[in-house]
Amino acid sequence: MSAELAINVTGFLVGTVVGITGVSGGALMTPILVLIFGLAPQIAVGTDLVFAAATKSVGVVVHGFHGTIDWNVFRRLSYGSLPAALVTVSFLYQNNLPVMNKDLIIHVVGLAIVVTSVGLLFRPTIYRLSRNPRIDESTAFNRLQGPFTVLAGAILGVMVTLTSIGAGTLGATFLVFLYPLRMKPATLVGTDIAHAIPLALVAGAGHLAIGNVDFTLLQNLLIGSIPGIILGSLISTRTPDHLIRFALAIILLLVGVKMLLW
Q: So what's the pLDDT on residue 81?
């Protein structure tokens, strides 16, 4: 199998999983590019950020048409994430990311994957824990909701810029915790996707300026992923979602641990 075809197939498989589960592809794509294809970690991160912005653009159009984006929550997340992404990109540029220690980047990516898998595994528990304070102490909860959403955005901004991971799964976990009653599942997904696009664009533009985007790789990933996402979306209507999410979370946990022990 040629290298281009292998990348096409990888894009298709990751796209299918994303279509079935709604989980962000970065947690899968970045470790695959690094561990299997031997790509430099910074190139994998930069290319995956642009890839994520491109693939999620279609989804946000659909969610916007159906009115399943909470623009107020979107703004709160963006107030934290976009400045944090800009600051992080500036830090990487000042410290010459292309020659940073490869093992350090791999370990940071591994940590991000472990955090993502834990969020995926315990999302129902997080919902139950946050629901009671929302009902019993609604005034205090409302007062803290805005600042905590901005803080969550800032955390995502740093994490996504460094690793390309977190905008999807971890972002959704934050929203489940902060808005357990306000957001229906479709609105949660739509808002999370909408926020991920400008964040990926800002972080991706920073990596592009540094020289960390491989356009040939990006093209081959898109060729495979688009039909994969369509297929996955069709499969998702006939598949027990919770079982797939659990299996995916375990796989991500193992991959994350492997990268931490690299």
A: 96
User: What b/e readout covers 82-104, taking b as 16+ CB neighbours within 10 angstroms?
Assistant: bebbbebbeebeeeebeeeeeee
Contacts of 107 (CB under 8 A, 6+ apart): 259, 260, 262
pTM for the full model?
Answer: 0.81
Q: What is the pLDDT of residue 97?
A: 56
Q: State the virtual CA torsion across 11, 14, 18, 19 in degrees, nearest 10.
A: 60
Nearest to 207 by CA among 40, 77, 35: 40
CB-count burial class (<10 Å; 0-12, 13-18, 19+) for 235: middle
How far apart, in Å, do the first and last CA atoms of the chain sit?
27
Instruction: Say if residue 240's pLDDT is above 80.
Output: no
% of the chain surpassing 70 pLDDT: 86
Determine the Cα angle at 111 with ends 81 and 248, to 5°. 95
pLDDT at 80: 97
DSSP letter for each residue of 190-229: HHHHHHHHHHHHHHHHHHHHHT---HHHHHHHHHHHHHHH
Domain extent listing, the chain = 3-260
How far is residue 9's CA from residue 32's CA, in Å, rounded to a whole number?
12
pLDDT of residue 193: 81
Q: How many residues does the chain have?
A: 262
Amino acid at 143: R
